[in-house]
Amino acid sequence: MGTYRDFWPAAVAGALLIGGCAAPGAGPSATGGSAESTSGKPLGADVSTAPLLPPALFPGEGEGFEAWRCAPANQHMVTAFGDETLKLWSLHGAWQLPQAVVASGARYQNGEISFWNRGDKAQVETPRGQLKCQLAHSRDARTRDNHPGVMFFAHGNEPGWTVELDNHEPLLTLSTDYGDTTETLPYMMSVMDNDAGRVVLENANAGRFFRVRIEAAACFDDMSGNPHPARVTLSIDGEQYSGCGEGIAP
User: Which domain holds residue 132?
Assistant: First the structure.
């Protein structure tokens, strides 16, 4: 899996800091890599293979995800540790920090942004301030062994639903009503923004409308508290459902 481009725009660094929180739904500024439909024809309409998703939706080198509760700004973050890099998701976006040499603990730094952890405690520093974090949850990342042929998996609760994106074709398998109803539907990509880690998928069959919006950002299961690297919103049959998701590496 390719690595996510190292960047932390100064305009959004405050998303992790006291008094610098971005508005809900805001994320890193997209200066390039954005692809959206401009001709009224959704992207991917003529593509018979599944589109590649932004690397920010995947754990990268990491084998699991960690949830951190941070103070005093009441921020919550998700991390995935690789051998030499750290992927970091806040409520407002995703970043990658390379590892720096330190005497103790593990420090990851990208310019003036750093994440330093020792055991179940961590410290995040930026030019705008500092956060103290405590490890809250951790879990293994999903794998193709457990989800064969699936590139992205999302789920939500009350009522329970899941969405699986096929790794080979632009098809999604939608399960609703706690698994009582399952169907496979073709989709088209109407928005792809690699820099922001944002994707919007819509129905390829005009007979039934649905939309799946995926955004790279810290997401926590509202029942278990388990961490995920993406927020997912499913709209179908006039209803809207919210949940979490993650890319599944080969």
Answer: 55-140
